[in-house]
């Protein structure tokens, strides 16, 4: 066998191997091919405790840095920073055909819906006196899914039942709709809009610049999180209204950007107005009682609360009475907002070498567990 035959034989073997690899890849699903090309498992290693961790810790360190920075900003000069504890937030979700793209697994629409659900629950945990409303954009029209309310379950249920993508996106129609809902809000309420935008264009019926100026005059803080690329009109909207604009790089980055809007932000000086607010503490309706709910205009049995001023029935708290306009809350809602008014001072980490440091000025016990720093409890392994 000469060299040419050997070369042909080698080339034939190579071609057969390539065909086998192509056949194997054709048998895989799209998401499996992405993982085969990515080979993300090669970037993992086992640590001393037997757990898997990424070799490159830059992403984890960056996330920890952002959390420390946000924590320090929230606790820095707490007496000088006024926060919006009563927030009225509308979440605008882009459900145009751009939301069906699969660059976010399994799609942008599903990824956004998951993160919005987690955000709603975290939002009401951080802001018990606030309210949320949902608006979607599809076919060039803005649709109101839910009105402003304080029930996370109702918002999540309404969102999951309307997950369909179609048509183009219209940013102006969404802003006009939200502006009409937020403009009558009292001056003590902080009016905010969070837009999750997937499209790279907007199909508007008029001049969107006039709409942006109306939002600015009505003191709406508009923030945008893009899922595609940076857009000038979105950046201009955020700059004019005092919001923030960012573009998500991947699923984890998108979740991080959305969750940054859960804690109450510092109030803008020109928008911050302090007023005394009349609040009512309603009593729970008696079991077996039948009355018409002022929220849904239906007869309800047992469930609900009674307004102390007009004796109207409401379904959930916090809310505003539809009859007399009184703000209705419960005492736990006010108690949970207390840590935003008077945040805990940053902790001073004290190592074992600093236990006898004279700069501690007599502090010899832990702030959390009150355990003495001079005679710490031995670790569990040393006891046994």
TrEMBL record:
InterPro entries: Ssl1-like (IPR007198), TFIIH_SSL1/p44 (IPR012170), VWF_A (IPR002035), vWFA_dom_sf (IPR036465). The keyword Nucleus applies. Residues 1-24 are annotated as: Disordered. Transmembrane segments: none annotated. One of its GO terms (molecular function) is zinc ion binding. GO terms for biological process: DNA-templated transcription; nucleotide-excision repair; regulation of transcription by RNA polymerase II. This is General transcription factor IIH subunit. It comes from Tripterygium wilfordii (Thunder God vine).
């Amino acid at each position: 066998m000469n060299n040419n035959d050997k070369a042909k034989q080698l080339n034939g073997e190579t071609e057969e191997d390539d065909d086998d690899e192509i056949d194997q890849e054709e048998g895989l699903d799209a998401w499996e091919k992405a993982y085969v090309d990515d080979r993300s498992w090669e970037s993992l290693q086992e640590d001393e405790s037997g757990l898997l961790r990424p070799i490159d810790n830059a992403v984890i360190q960056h996330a920890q840095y952002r959390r420390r920075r946000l924590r320090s900003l929230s606790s820095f000069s707490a007496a000088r920073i006024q926060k919006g504890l009563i927030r009225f937030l509308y979440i605008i979700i882009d459900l145009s055909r751009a939301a069906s793209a699969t660059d976010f697994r399994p799609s942008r629409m599903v990824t956004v819906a998951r993160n919005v659900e987690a955000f709603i629950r975290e939002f009401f945990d951080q802001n018990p006196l606030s309210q949320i409303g949902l608006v979607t954009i599809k076919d060039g029209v803005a649709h109101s899914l839910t009105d402003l309310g304080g029930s996370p379950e109702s918002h999540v249920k309404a969102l999951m039942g309307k997950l369909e993508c179609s048509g183009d996106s219209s940013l102006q129609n969404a802003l006009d709709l939200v502006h009409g809902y937020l403009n009558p809000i009292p001056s003590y309420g902080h009016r905010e809009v969070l837009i999750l935008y997937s499209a790279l264009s907007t199909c508007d019926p008029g001049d969107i610049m006039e709409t942006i100026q109306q939002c600015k005059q009505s003191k709406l803080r508009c923030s945008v999180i893009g899922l595609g690329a940076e857009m000038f009109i979105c950046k201009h909207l955020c700059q004019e209204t005092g919001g923030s604009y960012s573009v998500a790089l991947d699923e984890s980055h998108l979740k991080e950007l959305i969750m940054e809007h859960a804690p109450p932000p510092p109030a803008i000086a020109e928008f911050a107005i302090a007023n005394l607010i009349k609040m009512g503490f309603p009593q729970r309706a008696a079991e077996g009682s039948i009355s018409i709910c002022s929220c849904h205009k239906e007869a309800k049995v047992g469930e609900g609360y009674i307004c102390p001023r007009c004796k109207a029935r409401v379904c959930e708290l916090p809310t505003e009475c539809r009859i007399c306009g009184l703000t209705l809350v419960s005492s736990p809602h006010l108690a949970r907002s207390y840590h935003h008014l008077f945040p805990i001072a940053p902790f001073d980490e004290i190592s074992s070498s600093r236990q006898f440091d004279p700069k501690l000025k007599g502090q010899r016990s832990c702030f959390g567990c009150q355990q003495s720093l001079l005679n710490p409890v031995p670790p569990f392994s040393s006891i046994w």
